[in-house]
Design a protein that fits this description.
alpha+beta; 4-stranded mixed β-sheet; 3-stranded mixed β-sheet; globular; 8 helices
Length: about 230
């Protein structure tokens, strides 16, 4: 696709013997959760000029730029977001800074995920994000970003007033930064279903599906048959 600012990383550059072994023992999605901190640490090591990294899940869509909000936060080494419907950390959006606390916290998260990262609850742990809940017990400068327009999702949007004006989506009269489309599955280029039992906000979902549909059509021109394995059935 010749995306000028995209750098593709081959997993062979990341995986050592430990990760190769874990990959065989865990479900694919559990392994994907496991290597979140591995990827972030790899980027810090490979690109010394990078001082801040935002990790985000692939089912996140930005309606506006988050950088201005992050730049206004004066003191942080790690930024996390919660589910909003609870105080539990959501692992879909995490920021790390290249300072001692940030790098130490990242290393700790990686070690915890390598040791345990599964899709069930066990003594406060669940996947990679149960470990993130414990970061503030071990490290300072862990900032909980409570902006209402960050990490809006089907499981929490009922808590907020969502309106559209000035051609923007607003949440409690502040701009929507990103929506986390967890549980959405496309059936075809136009239609979708929700795996979670929530009533989604129609405009947000319709906009996202239209964007996805257009991108799929772009990719199909380069790679015919691309859609053969992406639709849910």
């Amino acid at each position: 696709m010749s995306i000028s600012k995209a750098v593709i990383i081959d997993f062979s550059e990341l995986e050592d013997k430990t990760l190769t072994k874990i990959k065989k023992e865990r479900e694919l999605y559990e392994y994907c959760w496991t290597i979140k901190p591995v990827v972030v640490e790899y980027i810090f090591d490979k690109y010394p000029g990078i001082n801040k990294i935002i990790y985000m899940d692939s089912d996140i869509y930005y309606f506006s730029d988050p950088i201005s909000i992050i730049n206004r936060i004066k003191k942080w080494s790690v930024i996390v977001t919660t589910h909003k419907s609870s105080k539990k950390v959501n692992g879909g959006f995490v920021c790390f800074k290249r300072d001692k606390i940030g790098l130490d916290a990242l290393k700790w998260w990686k070690e915890q995920c390598i040791d345990w990262c599964y899709a069930y609850y066990d003594n406060g742990k669940f996947g990679d994000q149960g470990h993130l809940d414990k970061l503030k017990k071990h490290y300072k400068n862990i900032y909980y970003l409570e902006h209402p327009g960050i990490n809006l999702a089907s499981w929490n949007d009922f808590l907020f007033e969502i309106k559209i004006y000035d051609n923007r989506v607003h949440v409690n009269n502040t701009r929507l930064v990103f929506y986390h489309f967890s549980g959405l599955r496309m059936i075809n280029k136009k239609d979708y279903i929700m795996l979670w039992k929530f009533d989604p906000k129609s405009y947000v979902y319709e906009h996202y599906i239209n964007v996805l549909r257009k991108k799929i059509e772009e990719i199909e021109k380069i790679s015919p048959g691309f859609t053969d394995n992406i639709f849910y059935n």
